[in-house]
Amino acid sequence: MIASLFKSGTERLAARLEALEAEALAQEATADESRKVAAEADAKAAEALADGDLDVSAWRKRRAAAEAKASEADAALKAARDAAEIVRGRLEEARRTESLETLRRR
């Protein structure tokens, strides 16, 4: 905490961007896994439906639940990427401002 008091705004933004990019990578892995699990569940449910072990209503509910979970993971991934993009933009602005201030001092 005390070390962060001595960091510039640019350094804090860079650290935040790094954390958000790491979160986006983790969310991407989660989304990929969710899509894989949804596809596997859909395939198993379709097989059970074809075998007569599952009625259409239950199949539709399982499919909707798997799709909802994958959709939530995709939404979380998009949110993480959007947050990183916002911080990236602010970091670029802060760096430009710092550069202009440095030039003015010279």
The residue-averaged pLDDT reads 88
Q: What portion of residues belong to β-strands?
A: under 5%
> Based on the structure, what is the oligomeric state of the protein chains?
single chain
Q: What's the Cα radius of gyration? A: 23 Å
Number of distinct helices: 3
H/E series, N to C?
A: HHH
Poorly predicted runs: none
Number of strands: 0
The percentage helix is over 70%
Shape by Cα distribution: rod-shaped
Q: Describe the biggest sheet?
A: none
**Structural class determined from secondary elements:** mainly alpha
What's the layout of helices and strands?
Elements: H1 2-5, H2 9-51, H3 56-105
Helix pairs in contact: 2-3
Describe the structure.
- This protein is an all-alpha fold.
- The chain contains 3 helices and no strands.
- The chain has helices at 2-5, 9-51, 56-105.
- α2 runs antiparallel to α3 (56-105).
- The longest helix is centred in the last third of the chain and has 50 residues, at 56-105.
